[in-house]
Design goal:
By secondary structure, this protein is of the alpha+beta class. The protein has 2 domains: 133 residues, Diaminopimelate Epimerase, Chain A, domain 1, CATH 3.10.310.10; 134 residues, Diaminopimelate Epimerase, Chain A, domain 1. Helix content is 19%, strand content 38%. It has a 17-stranded mixed sheet that branches. It has a two-stranded antiparallel sheet with strand order 9-10. The longest helix is centred in the N-terminal third of the chain and has 15 residues.
Length: 282
């Protein structure tokens, strides 16, 4: 790839623009990231994934939201980057370094399995603005109350509800994302337990909005359900875009299995990366 090339990939409709910055020739500003993320004037994505050199793994993956803010982890995106690295280098196992740690991925019959690491369960690991029991947060808004907080490299608040489709997540999500308890904002999930090994989940992602699938959100929901005694350690998570399979092992590690799909490959026109004065001022 040259510095203006990109891949468009998705995991269950959670879509990504992947840019290879390992040559060090291209640097993108927050304004340019927002411009690329514009679904009418740019390419559009739920997250932008920038590939950089790594001394500790096969590649370093940096994650940005459409609003230009940086995220710590992206489970669906990790599978997509892992597939790219496997195809590029002929690997059967890929280690991807992120700001949340090194995530290992292997291929399998049901797609790709990513070891997402150990969940953060302490109030300071989420993080929260003050000490609090993370199993039941003192938060209530509309029909939602008392979520469980989990960090999967980024903060999540999981609300258990009777019917996820009855929740006005598009209305409640933006306010809950910026609740005063979350100094770094939070991803807001609503989960409905169908069986002890099967849940329905929708997620409002900080900086992105409601997505078709959220890999780290699926991991957080299963961890939260296990902590509350609602779920088994091996649970299928049905999202708007399809199913992920999550395992919280006895070793404390969370693993996620799901697909990684190519959409297309493209090249940025230089004029698309030119930032207008209005964009610079925003």
């Amino acid at each position: 790839m040259n510095e203006l090339d990109f891949y468009k990939m998705h995991g269950l409709g959670n879509d990504f623009v992947i840019v290879d910055q390992r040559s060090g020739k291209l640097s993108l500003s927050p304004q340019q990231i927002r411009q690329i993320g514009d679904r009418r004037r740019g390419v559009g994505f739920d997250q932008l994934l920038l590939l950089e050199p790594s001394r500790n793994a096969n590649v370093f993956m940096r994650v940005y939201n459409p609003d230009g803010s940086e995220a710590g982890a992206c489970g669906n995106g990790t599978r997509c980057v892992a597939r790219l690295m496997m195809e590029e280098q002929g690997l059967s196992r890929v280690a991807i370094e992120t700001t949340a740690g090194i995530l290992e991925t292997v291929p399998g019959l049901r797609g790709y399995t990513v070891t997402m690491g150990r969940p953060g369960l302490g109030w300071d690991e989420i993080p929260l603005a003050k000490p609090m029991d993370t199993l039941y947060l003192d938060i209530e808004l509309g029909t939602l109350s008392r979520p469980t907080a989990v960090s999967m490299g980024n903060p999540h608040a999981v609300f258990f509800v009777d019917d996820v489709d009855a929740v006005e997540l598009n209305v409640l999500g933006p306010e809950l994302e910026r609740h005063s308890l979350f100094p770094e904002r939070a991803n807001i999930g609503v989960a409905q337990v169908l069986h002890r090994d099967h849940i329905r989940l929708r997620v409002f992602e900080r900086g992105a909005g409601i997505t078709n699938a959220c890999g780290s959100g699926a991991c957080a929901a299963v961890v939260a359900g296990c902590r509350r005694g609602l779920l088994e350690q091996n649970t299928a998570v049905q999202l708007d875009g399809g199913q992920l399979n999550i395992t919280w092992g006895d070793d404390g590690l969370v693993a996620m299995t799901g697909p990684a799909t190519h959409s297309f490959k493209g090249t940025f026109e230089p004029e698309m990366l030119a930032v207008s004065e209005q964009a610079r001022a925003s």
